[in-house]
Amino acid sequence: MFLELIENNSGKITVLQLVRNAQIPTQSAKEHLDEKAKELSADFEVNEDGNVSYRFS
Predict the structure, then answer these.
(1) pTM, to two decimals
(2) What is the arrangement of strands in the sheet containing 12-14, beginning at the earlier edge strand?
């Protein structure tokens, strides 16, 4: 699910997208994305509402 989401969104994903699509708890989604971000050297973007997007290249 993770790979499919980043492929379909040009490498960009949010915790909420992963929660909705993988049907997992928010904390689990955040931990998974944080782990993958470290592993794959992702960048982060924060919008005006404070929501974080992970950008994988």
Answers:
(1) 0.87
(2) 12-14, 52-55, 43-46
Residue written as tokens 């490498």?
11
Q: Which two tokens stand for residue 18?
A: 């992963």
Query: Three-class SS of residue 19?
Result: helix
8: number of Cβ within 10 Å: 12
10-48 per-residue burial string, b: 16 or more CB within 10 A, e: under 16: ebbbbbebbbeeeeeeeeebbebbeebbeeeebeeeeee
Q: How confident is the model at residue 54, as a pLDDT?
A: 97
Least Cα distance to 19 among 11, 29, 27, 9 occurs for 29
